[in-house]
C-alpha cells in the first residue's frame, strides 16, 4: 500500500532533500496510499527493549496474564554495562508459521548507547526488515544515523524508514517561549546518503508483512497534547519540514506549540490474543492511538498497550481520567515505558492492579504461542 512520491509543490525528489545519490532504483520518498489495508496476523511477537530510562538487574523471569518477561542477558565482561537514557528503542520480532520478521522501532537518544546495547543484548541488525520512527523528537531518532553508519551494509538494500508523515522531520525547540533552544530535526540528507527510503505513512500501512501503522491519529476523546516542545514549519537547505500540503500557508515559517500532527503507533494483530499497540510517546493520547488501531484493523480486542504514554507531567485528575478510559478498552496487559511516568504506574496499580507489567532496558516480552 505504498506509492512513489510525486508532488512537485512539496519536495521534488532526492535532490531537493540534499542528495545526488538517487541512482538506479533508489527512491527516497514514498507515500502510503489512502486505502484500506489488509491487516496481517502473526502467531507470536517478542519485544526487546534496547533503550529505556532504567534497568532492573534483579529482574527475574515472570508472567502477567499471557505475556512473559525475561531479564536482560547477563554480561560476561563486568566492565561493560547496558546504557540507560531518556529515550526509547525497541527490537520487534514476529513470527507467522516459519516466517520471521524484525522491525526496529525508534533509536534512543544517542548512537553510543544504542550501539553498546545492541552488542550486549545480542540484537542482530542483519535480521532487520524495516525501520520505524514514531515522531520527531530527538530522544526517539538520535541514535538512527550512527546506527546506519555502522550497520547499513547489514540491512536490506531497499530498507525503508516508516515515518508518520512530513511533521516527523520538522525542527523542534525546547524551553519556554522567548527562551527556546534547538532540539534538532531528523536530517533526510543523512538518510539519502545512507540510501534509506522514507515512507510518509500519514495513512495506515502494512510494515514488513507482519505489522501495521495507525497513520495519522484522530483526536476524538478526552485526551489532549500535554506541554512538550515547540515546532517550526520550514525547510532550509534540505533540513526541516515542508508543511505546505497539510497546513494553511500562513503557518509556513512559524514556530508554535507542538501538536505532533503525524505521530503514529506501530501495531501487531496476534493470533488468539488481539492487538498489541505500541505508542512510543503517545503525545496525541494513548486511548486515541488504541482506538485508531481498532478502527484501522477492524479488531476490537486489545491484548497489550505498550510504550511511552507521555503522562509523566499529567495532573492527577486528568491522569485518573485517562486510566479510566484505558480500563474501558479492557487490555490484557499494560506495559508503560519511557515518558509514561511513575504516576501513571501508580494509577494503573490502583485501577487495574493485575494488568501492569513493568519493563526496563534489556528485557524481552513475548506474546502469543
Automatic annotation (TrEMBL):
Pfam families: Lactamase_B. Keywords: Hydrolase. One of its GO terms (molecular function) is hydrolase activity. Residues 98-237 form the Metallo-beta-lactamase domain. The keyword rRNA processing does not apply. This is MBL fold metallo-hydrolase. It comes from Bradyrhizobium jicamae.
Amino acid at each position: 500500500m505504498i506509492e512513489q512520491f510525486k508532488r512537485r509543490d512539496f519536495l521534488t525528489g532526492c535532490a531537493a532533500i540534499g542528495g545526488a545519490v538517487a541512482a538506479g532504483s533508489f527512491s527516497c520518498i514514498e507515500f502510503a496510499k489512502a486505502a484500506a489495508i489488509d491487516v496481517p496476523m502473526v502467531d507470536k511477537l517478542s519485544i526487546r527493549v534496547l533503550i529505556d530510562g532504567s534497568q532492573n538487574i534483579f529482574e527475574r523471569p515472570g508472567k502477567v496474564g499471557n505475556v512473559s518477561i525475561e531479564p536482560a542477558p547477563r554480561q560476561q565482561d563486568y566492565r561493560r554495562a547496558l546504557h540507560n537514557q531518556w529515550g526509547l528503542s525497541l527490537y520487534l520480532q514476529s513470527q507467522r508459521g516459519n516466517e520471521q520478521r524484525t522491525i526496529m522501532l525508534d533509536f534512543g537518544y544517542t548512537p553510543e548507547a544504542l550501539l553498546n546495547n545492541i552488542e550486549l543484548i545480542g540484537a542482530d541488525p542483519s535480521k532487520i526488515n524495516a525501520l520505524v520512527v514514531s515522531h520527531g523528537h530527538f530522544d526517539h531518532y538520535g541514535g538512527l544515523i550512527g546506527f546506519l553508519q555502522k550497520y547499513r551494509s547489514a540491512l536490506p538494500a531497499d530498507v525503508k524508514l516508516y515515518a508518520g508523515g512530513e511533521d516527523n522531520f520538522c525542527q523542534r525547540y525546547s524551553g519556554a517561549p522567548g527562551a527556546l533552544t534547538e532540539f534538532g530535526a531528523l536530517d533526510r540528507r543523512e538518510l539519502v546518503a545512507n540510501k534509506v527510503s522514507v515512507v510518509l505513512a500519514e495513512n495506515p500501512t502494512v510494515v514488513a508483512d507482519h505489522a501495521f501503522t495507525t497513520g495519522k491519529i484522530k483526536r476524538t476523546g478526552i485526551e489532549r497534547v500535554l506541554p512538550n516542545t515547540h515546532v517550526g514549519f520550514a525547510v532550509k537547505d534540505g533540513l526541516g519540514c515542508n508543511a505546505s500540503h497539510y497546513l494553511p500557508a500562513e503557518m509556513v515559517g512559524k514556530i508554535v506549540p507542538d501538536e505532533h500532527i503525524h505521530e503514529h503507533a506501530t501495531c501487531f494483530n496476534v493470533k488468539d490474543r488481539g492487538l498489541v499497540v505500541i505508542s512510543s510517546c503517545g503525545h496525541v493520547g494513548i486511548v486515541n492511538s488504541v482506538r485508531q488501531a481498532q478502527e484501522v484493523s477492524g479488531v476490537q480486542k486489545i491484548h497489550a498497550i505498550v510504550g511511552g504514554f507521555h503522562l509523566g507531567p499529567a495532573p492527577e485528575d486528568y491522569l485518573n481520567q485517562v486510566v479510566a478510559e484505558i480500563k474501558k478498552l479492557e487490555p490484557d496487559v499494560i506495559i508503560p515505558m519511557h515518558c509514561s511516568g511513575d504516576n501513571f504506574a501508580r494509577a494503573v496499580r490502583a485501577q487495574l492492579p493485575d494488568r501492569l507489567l513493568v519493563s526496563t532496558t534489556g528485557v524481552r516480552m513475548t506474546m502469543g504461542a
